[in-house]
Amino acid sequence: MLQRATRMLDSRCENVAGGTFHSFANLKLRQHGSAMGLPANFAILDRADAEDLIGLLRKEAAGQAKDRSLPRKNTLADIFSRAVNKSMPIQDVVGNDYPHFMDQLDTITCLQAAYTRRKRDHHFLDYDDLLVCFQRLLQEFPDVRRRISSAHRYVMVDEYQDTNRVQAEILYLLTDANKNIMVVGDDSQSIYAFRGANFRNILDFPSLFPGTRIIGLEENYRSVQPILDLTNIVIERAQEKYAKHLFTRKAGGSTPQLIEAEDENSQSLFIVQKIQEFAQRGVPLHRMAVLFRAGFHSFDLEIELAREGLAFIKVGGFKFTESAHIKDVLAHLRVIANPYDRISWHRILQLIEKVGPRSAQRIYDAIAATDAGVAGLFTIRLKHPGIERLAGLYQTIDPTAMRPVEIGAAVVQYYLPLLKQSFDDHPKRAKDLEQLLGILERYQRLDQFLTDMALEPPNISAEDRLVAGDVEEDRLVLSTIHSAKGLEWHSVFIIWALDGRFPSLYAMSKDDDMEEELRLMYVAATRAQEHLFLTYPRQVYDRSLGIVLNRPSRFVDMIPRDILEKRSVRY
DNA sequence: TCACGGAATATTTTT
DNA sequence: TATTCCGTGA
Fold first, then answer.
1. Strand C close to A58 by CB, under 7 A
2. Where is the domain boundary, A178, A208, A238?
3. How far is the C-alpha of A192 from the C-alpha of A200, rounded, in Å?
4. Are A54 and A113 in the same domain?
5. What is the pTM of this model?
6. What is the number of domains present in chain A?
């Protein structure tokens, strides 16, 4: 965004501070966090790290209480996070969303306290902590608030409907000195309620900032009228919304189509054929996108695209940095940046044969006791030959003298044998590691790299090989709807518009969730400039639920044919 | 204490 | 279906 502004205006835009709430908070906490006793080299826990830590604590707690019905670590992480993002006490979250765990409430609350304590002891911040700590820093330390808020004379926020209470409070404090704030948002595009976003923030804005001027934007510069006619109908079905009716002056385009395909593969073949058709008419691949509700919905399509030799890039879903081998290498780098990063130590030690949780724990304790950082590993005497090798690795690494990419290369060298041992598909994974080194090449500082990997990882799917270099190859875009937010394409295909998939069956029991699914459909459909296709397989048996899904998505069902054309295809 | 295998269970979306 | 959890044997 800042780059685009620089191109359109002038280079002063490069000096604008910008980023996600999380990355901005991270920056400010590193600069000013010492005021609240936070060291500048705190480590950021991503979701998986947080779950690992919670898993450890969970095991300890279960050992004492012999409790077998405790929620899983992933559920616990959900509960803790939801409590923060919705600014609610744990018991309300459990009561509302996990009533079946109500009898475990005490243990859950204890675990959260333990988690909080453990994070503080090790200088870990998880995603939620970044926001909460930043908010506290601004709130409780007037000097810091004055410095930060006067350094930023104007504050602008995009996608305001996706902010939560904590973020709203951060903004309030951040504009303390100058009171210059502008936010842009569309309540109809709020799709992050699951992480605590509350589009009612938009409603509350005028009371939080008296004297607010509201500007309505109803002219759409993206889509042709036939597409808006459809999206206007879709969003009218929302229970709760601020009435608005989009219009455009763009002429041309075609009536959106609803395509019933014989089965999933037939759906894929239809997409492939349509895309080739458009491509032949001169539409570049990167101006077309296939959108879907969940990352795995595109698997079959990906196979067909590969078969036809159509280049594509997949955005969203399971990310590159989330795959085990990447996390392994990152863990090795993380202990260099922060030798007391217990989670990473645990991870890398357990990669070694014959080292399990128990030994890892003992070794970590021994290292920590030497108080010598990574070098502590050299002084402790242990019989594992694998440990010797790990010590050998760290002995060759001098973080002060080596560039990050050189350190990374040494780690990969060490890690490759372990990779071969544990993964059948190690050649593909080895390639990923080279890609990682390619990214690492661009960094001067290791800690900067690690922060970026946690906060702004390449939003590229794991199965997708990263683009070599920065060459802009012409590729079709496959994306989850969430990752498509704010983007636009000449032609858009929404696949799996099948009732039960989209809206997801899991959303059907709650009105709020269904509303969000509807808004998600609205977001997806409004990505299209000229052509819009919705497709669904005629009949799908969902074996985990034991039901047959055979209706088009209720969001686009029963719409007059002059607004949404209907067609069946078979291949 | 580790590694492995069978049983249980939840199942999306992202910073 | 895939992951996670737990018990068992080495």
1. yes
2. A208
3. 12
4. yes
5. 0.88
6. 4
Please give the pLDDT value at position A544.
65
Q: What is d(CA A292, CA A93) in angstroms, rounded to the nearest whole number?
A: 29
| A73 sits within 7 Å of strand C by its CB | yes
- The DSSP secondary structure of A532-557, one letter per residue, reads EEEEEES-EEETTTTEEE-SB-TTTT
A25 and A135 in a single domain? The answer is yes
Predicted pLDDT of residue A542: 74
Strand partners, A290: A478, A493
The pLDDT of residue A181 is: 95
Residue A72 Cβ under 7 A from any strand C atom: yes
- Spacing of A365 CA from B1 C1' in Å: 17
Closest residue (CA) to C1' of nucleotide C2 is A544
Q: Tell me the CA–C1' distance in angstroms for A103 and B9.
A: 19
Domain residues for the domain of A80 are 43-122
- pLDDT at residue A101, as a whole number: 85
CA A328 to chain centre: 20
Tally of CB atoms within 10 A around A349 = 25
Note whether residue A268 is domain-resident: yes
Residue A248 corresponds to which amino acid? T
Q: CA A259 → C1' C6, Å? A: 47
Task: Kindly state whether residues A32 and A55 are assigned to the same domain.
Answer: no
For residue A15, the domain's CATH number is 3.40.50.300
For residue A341, give the CATH number of its domain. Answer: 1.10.486.10
The protein footprint on chain C, as nucleotides within 7 A of a CB, is 1, 4-7
Are A118 and A153 contained in the same domain? no
Which nucleotide shows the minimum CA-to-C1' distance to residue A131? Answer: B15
Tokens 């395509």 map to which residue? A259
pLDDT along chain A (571 residues), means of 10: 85 87 94 93 89 86 64 90 90 86 86 91 92 96 95 93 92 94 91 84 88 90 93 88 82 91 90 94 94 89 88 81 87 89 88 85 87 80 77 90 93 89 80 87 90 80 49 81 91 93 83 89 94 92 75 91 92 79
* Alpha-carbon gap, residue A402 to A387, rounded angstroms: 23
Which of chain B's bases lie under 7 Å from a protein CB? 1-3, 10-15
Say whether both A388 and A513 belong to one domain: no
**Distance in Å from the first CA to the final CA of chain A:** 42
Residue A77 contacts by C-beta under 8 Å, 6 or more apart in sequence?
Answer: A47, A50, A51, A54
Q: Is residue A214 part of a domain?
A: no
CA of A256 vs C1' of C3, distance in Å? 39
Same-domain status, A438 and A344: yes
* Residue A64: predicted pLDDT: 58
Claim to verify: residue A349 and residue A336 sit in the same structural domain: yes
